[in-house]
Design goal:
heterodimer, A: 89 residues, alpha+beta, Mth169, Chain: A, three-stranded antiparallel β-sheet, B: 232 residues, alpha/beta, Rossmann fold, two-stranded antiparallel sheet, 11 strands, globular
């Protein structure tokens, strides 16, 4: 089933308390080589048929108006894959 | 005067808002998120809580509810609308108010009695306060940190649209200590702290006079009632 993936991140200039908390936990585990962590969102939208221009335009519109809030977030990626994601081998 | 309180899935301060409205002297009308009907109310409160579990973003899914079509039209036509906490988040998501609310700076849920300075006494919901009145009402949220672009912040400050500012320390990292804002017209107000929890002696914040005797929140509701009488 074709799947459109939309990725949303908190704006770069914003403090990301969630990412900061995760980064803090990594540091406490002794993983000191990482400079920082930011946490965003990934939406996977299953569609029927091909991901044609009209469908992608509709998703782009929804990504900007519903899936993200431009005051606090940026849409950083929209792409199409063949199926919903599964675990990496 | 009839003031509607909209209940969303996950609202939890709707009953307190209804009680505050009655104590202030107006009739409270319970409204339902799934309806397309404001039942002829004269003003609206969007209450606090965790609508839709704060999924997607706090207030985002509720801001797309059926009744929000009517709420947005009414707000744009000048009806007084007060969004408290989750209601404030809905108003920003519905673009009725500028800015946005993100997770508290320190990553913790904050629940405490909070000092505020009321800096705008022209809005429908704050007209009854003395200029720069200092009040104490409860604050309780996990995503209460107000943010806006530099440009928006400049406009809010320049136009005097900061309704309330935190005093005695910034609890959540809000830019410019902002606790509440209004729109240009002054009919739509969003507040992170909870006036509806400080309306009845015995159940409010502690004061110098007596435990739990703080009723500073009542003035938000009496303000809108007084404004309606003037308008008539």
């Amino acid at each position: 089933m074709p799947t459109i993936v939309v990725e949303v991140m908190p704006k770069a200039e914003l403090l990301d308390p969630q990412g900061k908390a995760v980064a803090g936990a990594l540091g406490r585990l002794g993983q000191t080589q990482f400079l920082g962590v930011r946490v965003g969102k990934r939406f996977e939208i299953s569609i029927e048929g091909d991901a044609d221009a009209a469908t992608l335009a509709a998703v782009r519109e929804l990504a900007d108006t519903v899936l993200s809030n431009s005051v606090i977030e940026d849409v950083v990626g929209i792409h199409v894959q063949d199926a919903p994601s599964s675990a990496v081998a | 005067m009839r003031i509607g309180v909209v209940t969303f899935p996950g609202s939890l301060d709707d009953r307190d808002a209804v009680r505050a409205i009655r104590l202030a002297g107006a009739d409270a009308v319970a409204l339902w998120h799934g309806d397309h009907d404001l039942h002829g109310v004269d003003a609206l409160v969007l209450p606090g809580g965790f609508s839709y579990g704060d999924y997607l973003r706090a207030g985002a899914i509720a801001s797309l509810s059926p009744i929000m079509t009517e709420v947005i039209d009414a707000a744009n036509a000048g009806m007084p609308v007060l969004g408290i906490c989750n209601g404030f988040q809905m108003l920003t998501e519905a673009h009725l108010l500028d800015g946005g609310l993100i997770r508290n700076e320190q990553g913790r849920f904050i629940c405490r009695d909070q000092g505020l300075r009321i800096e705008n006494t022209r809005s429908d919901w704050t007209a009854g306060f003395a200029a720069n009145a200092e009040i104490v009402i409860p604050l309780k949220n996990g995503e209460g940190s107000f943010i806006a672009s530099d440009e928006t912040l400049k406009a809010l400050e320049g136009e005097g649209r900061i309704v309330a500012r935190y005093i005695g320390g910034n609890p959540n990292g809000s830019l410019n200590d902002i606790a509440g804002v209004t729109n240009a017209r002054g009919n739509v107000v969003g507040l992170m702290p909870h006036p509806e929890h400080a309306v009845e002696a015995g159940f409010g914040p502690d004061t110098d006079d007596a435990m739990a005797s703080g009723v500073d929140g009542l003035t938000f509701f009496t303000s809108v009632i007084a404004q309606a009488l003037v308008a008539r």
